[in-house]
Design goal:
Length: 227
């Protein structure tokens, strides 16, 4: 049977929304967010009481801006795709804050929190898998890994693992320094670390089996041609 067409621009928007809802549910569950977003979430927890406008999404803007600076220093190159990728961050951060407003209405019941956490793992994995299908550059976390791999011809899996562990260590250090205990990091962080890679791969295979991806707009050459 002929597979239905899923336009890459639509896949991009759905991916951002799924990832935003997944991370907001993870924050609501309070069992530990993923290693990648942990530094931003800890920073949000530390500053939101003093600056009410410093939301989870705003914290993501701040952290990913630092990622751009670090990437430029490490590669000694400034690429347009770095800043195009930051546009994904802007959209994701706004969607994340909107989803946080929704999850704030959920009851603080253990069963609901556990269910929300389980759902968050699947939503995040499904969202990330969709973000690898369009021609838009993915989030800066993924771009950072890709650029380091390309710069020194390293193995993708190794660089991704080092980056994730580095994010976790930074979040742990921030949490201990700012709170004297671990906040935003827990058993859920560990579970997410073990499952995310496998689930992203499985969702990617599922999407390719269910859909034919096609561009609705003639922008692929523009985005892929940018250095």
């Amino acid at each position: 049977m002929k597979k239905p067409i899923l336009y890459s621009e639509v896949a991009y928007l759905i991916g951002v929304l799924l990832l935003s809802m997944g991370n907001s549910l993870s924050a609501y569950a309070d069992l530990g967010v993923s290693m990648v977003v942990a530094p931003a979430y800890v920073l949000h927890l530390a500053l939101v009481d003093v600056f009410p406008w410093f939301s989870f999404g705003v914290a993501e803007y701040a952290v990913q801006a630092l990622v751009i600076v670090l990437l430029i220093l490490m590669t000694r190159r400034v690429k347009v795709r770095f800043f195009i990728s930051f546009c994904t961050t802007l959209l994701y951060g706004a969607a994340l804050d909107a989803c946080m407003l929704v999850t704030a209405w959920l009851p603080s019941l253990v069963a609901v929190r556990v269910g929300a956490y389980v759902l968050s793992i699947f939503l995040c994995s499904a969202g990330v898998a969709l973000l690898f299908t369009p021609y838009f550059p993915p989030g800066l976390y993924e771009v950072f890994v890709q650029e380091i791999v390309g710069k020194w011809n390293l193995k993708l899996g190794v660089v991704k693992t080092v980056y994730d562990i580095g994010s976790l260590l930074v979040a742990v250090a921030m949490s201990l320094l700012l709170f004297g205990t671990l906040r935003g990091i827990g058993v859920g962080t560990v579970v997410c670390a073990f499952l995310n890679g496998t689930l992203i791969h499985l969702f990617g295979k599922l999407y390719n089996r269910l859909f034919t991806f096609r561009d609705a707009l003639p922008w692929r050459g523009f985005f892929e041609g940018k250095k």
